[in-house]
Specification:
It is built from ten helices and five strands. The protein is α/β, with parallel strands linked by helices. The protein has a single domain, classed as Rossmann fold (3-Layer(aba) Sandwich), CATH 3.40.50.300.
Amino acid sequence: MRIGLTGGIGSGKSTVSRCWQALGATVIDSDAIARELTLAGGAAMPLIVAEFGASMQAADGALDRLRMRELAFAEPGARQRLESILHPLIGIETEVRAQASTSDFIVFDVPLLVESGRWRRKVERVLVVDCKLSTQVDRVMKRSGWERAAVEAVIAQQASRARRRAAADAVIYNEGLSLERLQQQIEGLAAHWRREA
Ligand SMILES: CC(C)(COP(=O)(O)OP(=O)(O)OC[C@H]1O[C@@H](n2cnc3c(N)ncnc32)[C@H](O)[C@@H]1O)[C@@H](O)C(=O)NCCC(=O)NCCS
Ligand SMILES: Nc1ncnc2c1ncn2[C@@H]1O[C@H](COP(=O)(O)OP(=O)(O)OP(=O)(O)O)[C@@H](O)[C@H]1O
């Protein structure tokens, strides 16, 4: 079964992904693929340099992520140009990885599943990880050392919690939840979806 896992920045997608991995699922992480594509020599780099100029490249040839983040979340047009380079390449790579999987469950961790539209028909279930906006901000500031305004700028470009929940087959409310309880919820969901299938 193909599951699309989504949620806002810092909601807990990677944490939930690890719960699925513990059950033997294959997890395919779009953010990780985007990072690989933009390493030095990555397939996206020539296209990014052609579109945004060589100043977007760090000294080692990889994408200058901080610089690109500042541009992409300040100018929606720039973010869309970046997405139009990366999203087709991410789509190809995720499909290659999915084809290679022999697991019962393939979990696609896709931050922009609801926003992009092209994902819904590729998955059989949509699992949304939800939490309060203030929790998202706190978690990302703590985990990544970002400024509050940087986290808020990303949240402003993402779907609302209500829109995401409306697209969900199941919602994990990841607020004050121990990792044990989270794992139990995923186990319950996996059993339920196994029965449905
Ligand atoms: C802008 C970039 C360079 C910033 O890199 P940085 O290392 O600072 O952040 P990172 O990649 O870890 O992303 C952190 C989070 O930002 C959010 N985010 C990333 N890109 C986008 C986007 N295009 N729109 C909305 N939110 C986004 C996601 O929640 C993501 O988990 C990078 O996020 C990127 O290349 N984005 C475009 C690719 C994309 O759309 N990725 C989203 C998953 S498909
Ligand atoms: N239930 C929880 N209990 C305690 N800490 C949590 C919980 N869920 C998530 N976190 C912590 O919050 C931070 C963000 O979680 P995680 O990385 O899973 O989110 P994400 O949705 O994958 O984030 P991003 O969109 O930035 O990739 C991490 O440091 C994680 O350890």
